């Protein structure tokens, strides 16, 4: 289940974000968290089943939602969590188009999410 980020989840969110290749540096990671906390267009969601195992960060602009970050705890990878997060995001914002940025496009391609978007599924 996709849940909105709250300040109480900061350490978990930072841990998941740190798995993104461009978020390895602590200062960069703190800047990114500040962006999500301070800008209404930047929204962070966590994936929670029993535990929080994934994170998806987006920028919402008019009719487009651009996925900035997508990360799954390494011990929970290859279980469809990333794909489920994108699908849930699409359901949450049915009227908007969900697209990757340059850092998340390879994930979309690998999972066939871009193909789903084109076929309307």
TrEMBL record:
InterPro entries: Acyl_CoA_acyltransferase, GNAT_dom
Pfam families per record: Acetyltransf_1 (PF00583)
Domain N-acetyltransferase: 3-121
Keywords of the record: Acyltransferase, Transferase
Record's keyword annotation contains Acyltransferase: yes
Domain of life of the organism encoding this protein: Bacteria
Protein name per its UniProtKB record: Riboflavin biosynthesis RibT protein
